[in-house]
Structure formats: structure tokens, C-alpha cells
Amino acid sequence: MDTLAAGHTQTEDPTLERSFRGHKDAVTSVVFNPNMKQLISGSLDTTLMVWNFKPQLRAYRFTGHKAAVHSVAFSPTNDLIASGSKDRTVRLWLPSVEGKSSVIKAHNGTIRTVAFSRDGRKLITGSDDKTVKVWGLPGGRFECALSGHTNWVRCAEFSPDNRMAVSCADDKTVRLWDIAGHRCVHTFSDHNGFVNSVKFHPDGTCVASAGSDNVIKVYDTRSNSLVQHYDAHAGSVNTVAFHPSGNFLLSSSNDGTLKVWDLREGQLFYTLHGHEGPTLCGAFSPAGDYFAS
Questions:
Q1: Which of 154, 160, 173, 177 is nearest to 84 (CA)?
Q2: Count of CB atoms within 10 A of residue 263's CB?
Q3: Which end of the chain, N or C, is less packed with Cβ atoms under 10 Å?
């Protein structure tokens, strides 16, 4: 697992800052602590690792899940990590050496995605049981289920204003949801394969999705139209992540590369070859000056 400096100008190449080793199986998800002192990762080895950037501080290994961890998220407002697992539970952790967690028995199938709302007061989860669910925090109280997908849900996220959600699934669709109304307001069906990842643009006006058809699509959520299409990778695209500026998109793929896309120019900006196998995840730091994979 690698952390890279993103490069601040058009001429600066990304540089490898740190490489972390400790998981015993594939790393499925990475996220930065907003304080920029830690990186959190989840793995098929059933654990979370909290990697401290200070070299003198050792990493913390969090155990508790009974099966693979597919997704980790960090609250933007509280010292809280969420993880989703094949064991059908969500765990909420404090990022300290003790590794204490509380458990939400969340779904009837593998949980593939967890994400916090911008205000840190809600959590959204998606599962192989084909549902998306919303939970209240800090207590983990069930608020609503969003039903409509006809296959495994791979990714779900709140809009920046917390009023909408977006999700994607193995049914080849991206769905937009009105959370208060508990209903799907639009379905995008352009992908020719499983849709693995979907993210809201920081200004909430569009979403980017990535699929097993090797493409990335960008949809305008006001006109519900496809605005950009990228034949992105030579393998399944596993994740997409917007730069905080909204001007760049980071993608990871089974072809082993990470790519940075310039959304203003509508073209590939940079390709990184660093991993020896499939690149399963990528994430920007909150300020956008680093990314991890």
C-alpha cells in the first residue's frame, strides 16, 4: 500500500512518499484521517490497519471482524472509523491503540461499502442483500432502507448536502436517491458491466462511476445526462475518487495502474505504475496534496 504526493503544479510528477506493509491479504480500501496523521486500510485478511505517518509510531492492527473487510471510512467531523465486512456487520472504531469497536448488525449479506455524511451524523451502507441503508450516528440507529437494485450493491455515498445518495451495483446501474422520500429519483443504465464505484463531485452537480466494462462515466445530476465517457483502463475499474477541487479524478484498476484524469480538459493527466497486482482502491487526502492506493 502506497502514499504519494500528488504534485502541486502541472509539471510536478507524483512522488512515492511512503509504502506500508502489514496486511496478510489484498488491501480493499484506504482512507486518510482528516488530521493527516494516519492512513486507515481494510483487507481481505479481516483486519483494519491504522498507519501512523510519524515513523516512530507503530501501526495499530484492529481485529474484530470475522471475515474480509471490504470498505473503510473516516468521519469528517468525529474521531471515528467505520468498516464494512463480509461478516454482514459494520464496526465503528476509535483510531487509538486500544482498537475498541461497537457493532451494527447491518445487512443480510456482505457489506461492500460504508461512507459518512459530510456532517458526520449519518452513515450509508450497501450490501449483497441488494439494499442501501442509512444509519444515524453516533449510536448507529437504523433510519431507512433504499431498495431498488436487483444485484449486489458495490458502492454508496451521500451527496455533499446530505439530501441525496448515489449507489451502484452489479445490476449495471447507478441510482440517485432522495433520502427523505426513501425513493430512487433516477437510474443510469449506460454501463455494460458491473458498476464498482460511484462518487459525487464535491459541488454535488455530477457523479462519476466506474465499472467492470473498463470505463468511467460522468453524469450531470441536474439534467440526468451523460456528460463524459472515458475508455479508462485495460481492466475492470475498481474505484474512482474526486480531487477536492473537483478538477481531477483518480481511478484504480485490475490492470495494475492508477490514473489521474483532468476533468476540465476531458483527458488522461497521469498514469502510475506502482503495484504488482490489481489496484483495488485509491483515495485523495482531504486537502488533495496526497493520495493513497
A1: 154
A2: 21
A3: N
Q: Which amino acid is at 251?
A: S
Q: Is 63 exposed, middle or buried (0-12, 13-18, 19+ CB in 10 A)?
A: exposed
User: Shortest CA distance to 18 belongs to which of 290, 278, 249?
Assistant: 290
pLDDT number for residue 60:
93
pLDDT over 80 (residue 279): yes
For 180, the 3-state DSSP assignment is: coil
Cell numbers 458491473 correspond to what residue? Answer: 194
Count other Cβ atoms within 10 Å, centred on residue 234: 11
User: What per-residue string of b and e applies to 77-113 under the rule 16 or more CB within 10 Å gives b?
Assistant: eeebbbbbbbbbbbbbbbbeeebebeebebbebbbbb
pLDDT above 70 (res 282): yes
* Verdict on whether the full-model pTM lies above 0.90: yes
